[in-house]
Records
---
Amino acid sequence: MIPVMTAEDIHDATETFARYGVPADRIFSEIMRARYLDYVLFQNPENQQYGVSIEDLYENMKKTSDTLGLYEGDADTYVRAYTLALRVDPMAFAPDMEKVEDHVGALVEEATSRAKKGGTTVLFTGVENYLPFVSRIFDTLSDKRLAFAVKDRVWKKRLQLVFPRCRLMMEEDLPEDTVSYDYIFQFGGSSHFLSKRLKETGAMDVVLPYETLLSPEMEGDRNSWIREGKLVSYEDMVLGNGEFAFLRFGSEPVKTISFGTASFQNGQYESARALELPWDSFRDAEEWNIDVYIYNGSPALQTMLGGHILDMDYSIDAGFASVGETELEGGTIPILSAANIRDYGIFSDTEPALTERGQKGILLQGGDLAIAVSGGEIHMIPVPEGEKFLAGQGVYGFRSRGKYTPWYLKLYLDGPVGRLFLDTMKAGRNYAFTPSRLLRIPMPPAGDEIIRKADRLCRDTVRQLAEAQENWRLAKRNSVGLMMGHREV
């Protein structure tokens, strides 16, 4: 199996390729050529038994020059380039690849593990969403009849050369596919027809943006899944900064369905179950809002919502909006990292960053509520008036729509009721936090007087907490002189 390549491995391989006459912009082409030749040449039983001579390999290389260009070194050097190309991870050198979150890799590992335990035919769709991890799929499932479906014809040609033993398809052609699969991993897009491609003992995992799952365009898929009755679990998960639904299907109609939150710890998928229902109850409810099921997994929240103390139709979204990316004006601006957000203020060592005009980022300004997960806990604080910060990784901002203040929202979310809702986002030791999910949390409506009182209570208490933190810092500093600088005889 080809090992996962580190940045140092990639750098070393790039330098070695250069010594063999392969510049950096030609490496992927040589990898495609080497893998294609390896597949074609060793289909010949004689070559399998006796191997391929340097001269034959060099001559066959020339036959691919129309599509992959001509290698300009001699035969002996080409053998070295060919051997190296077979040893490295192809996708580490592939062009035009966007950065993919590690969580996506962990999800692909989970899907690959499930496929490994199944039968012989496997289909992975939406491959552009996880291109850096395709080599791992191929290596792990080398004993399977593996198929990949892509949207881009350029990537179809590239992957067909890199993985010639795999079947490559365009996603638009999937409805006409007649192969029956033991396992299907569907990332994005409509997929109700794919369940008909499953064998009787097959299984399928579907990953969709949460908004897409609930959209009118997906009604046909949802109705099909209800009719089939094979949906085993429905989980909410975070990939990058987006909220996704993770649907797992079995091979037979089920009696129960579970709901929960998925997270990724140490590169592995974890699931936190919130509620399990009889399938008939889910079918009759005709409800796909994941919050309905997760909130009902908490007796306290079930009581409040059932008793109409809180209403799911009146949520934080009624008073606040998520601060989205915007084009920056350029210049130096402090970056607010997740570790610098405290419940009593913003830690002072925020480092400035030089930004370019037109660069995109989340710009937090005075009056926004900054929220981040740090150390396995959610922390939040309003940005002081007159200050601006560029949100760092995992930092989110919520801006008042006019009526409610950030101090009101902080007091609510930091209070026992708000924490009950926030804790429904926990999976394992971490929070699967997204702005969209927070904005759906029910919020108690309030008039101007209640808002003013809550705002003042939160401001005053946070100020006292900040003063106490500063006094404690000074006490620790002064302890050195008090305890270490003097001795009693």
---
Amino acid sequence: MPTHATFRRLALPVFALALLLQLPLALNPGYYSHDELQWAAFAQAGMPAGWTDPGAFQYRPLTFATWMALSRALFDTPMLFHAVLVAWGAANATLLALVGRGFGLAPRVAMAGALAFVLTPYAAYTHGWVGCIADLLWVSCALVLALAVQHLRAAWQAGLLAALLTGAGLLAKEAAFAIPPLLLVAAVFDGTRRREWTIAMLAAGVACALYLGLRVDSLLHAPRDGAQYALSPWNAPLRWFEYQVFAPIPPLLEAFTVLQRPVPVLVAAALWLALVAALWRACRRCAAVFLLGGVAALLPVLPLGASWNHYAYGFAAVACMAVAAAWPQATRGGRLAIGGFALLTCLHGAVVMARMHQVGRIQSVFSPALAAALAARPANATLALRLDRDAKPWVFQRLTHQIPSYAGVPIGTRVHLVDAAAPADYRITADGRLIALR
């Protein structure tokens, strides 16, 4: 395992700098979307995590148990809740740096790749939205496994650990099906420990096969909430393209909006091609890992009906380390292409952090005001809310969507957002305040 000196010179600086870079997320005074509010209500109601219900479409008991435990402890202190997730993300970045070092990268290169990772719009979104605990979990399992395989002496130990960690990852999210193909990429490109990677890949594959045997009918036929979960192999090329070009388009908050901006997409595609060309000229192995490892990390989510930032969390880890590895060997022109793409990607991550912080500020005002307005009315009374012209509809649609209760006040179907011309009880200001209209 990594030595004390490696921890002191690499792990601790990466962890500290990753925390610092993500300070806007840690200082968020509120929450981003409806599911954080939903699961806080579920936690307060004592809802089970669903360990014994493998027939559910989303069978993620490890995620749900973790989420509800954290919600019970920290929901009322959003900054502390976010600080825990940011620290978790910083720990994943630290593991990534150690894995990069294990593949032979210089400490500064591994550090650069890990810090670039936390500044991607994929990681910033994942670390800033409590609803992404599942992605934090499965990628943590994958990184711990990679680090262990690099240092374990016996192949059987790698196989056993791969089966256990892949199983844990699958209990967090089905995206952990990416672990065997990622191990295959490692086996192909790391000739020094090919046997260990291969044994780990086979053991992880067995864990996935057992899970799939138990769950295949549910995954294919169980009722699902939202068109984004509809599966089709024809979705794969489009999803892959969206994840590649989303990174260098800073104005976009979420990946599923990529194709709404055709001109920026064309520019981003040109930048991506320049990046791949620079990687290929600098280090063909790095370019291959960037492309094949990226596909491996995205494989379980490519057939889905929509792309989301957090679905590409593992992809961002692989891509950042592959690009960092190529940097020392790149030409001046290659570094210009790599640096330009990286700069836009990091700027995009900063924009995502700022906007998530902004939504959190709105939620910290709106949800308590909504609960107070409902508490002042009879239990079966409803509220009609009208948005001010400068208020963002999507923010308040999410913050009123299927919320069972907030601060002990039942919400459910008691709240309705109405058109500007319709009668309303309150209007919602852009910063989340409720102004009584009657």
---
Amino acid sequence: MKATKNMNISEIKSTTDKFTAKHPVKDKFDLQGLQLCEYAENIRAAVQTGNDEALMQTIADIFNYGYMNGTKQAIKSESDKHNEIFNRSEEKHHKDLVELAYYLPAGIGADYLYMYAVVSLDHYYGKSLIDLLPLKQRRLYYKTLEAYEQQSKA
């Protein structure tokens, strides 16, 4: 896909139409009728008075609104995806572990809990269990273990 800055208006419209057909906005983050009417009035007033600066500012406001709410929608979608995984689990240990890391006292963070888990797994199971993990988790495991070993040498 071309970068948006290299598209003309019809290409942007076509790309946007294709995207929104596949990814409709299903939640409260979309512009509603009242806001659209207010923006239309602001645009009409700016055009009638010839105030180009106000017109451009209104267009920028609409863009910024869309950007902000697109970000909020992405955060909500990610949260919903994680909640779906947690709720699907027969055992609630995934959610319990996340909540434990979140509510640890000040000074003890999730990074400490993760390092503790990695060191414990290495101590009790060694490489036999870790080699069963997906590549991304294995890399993080070995990186964390290496950082722990450097800390304990210091």
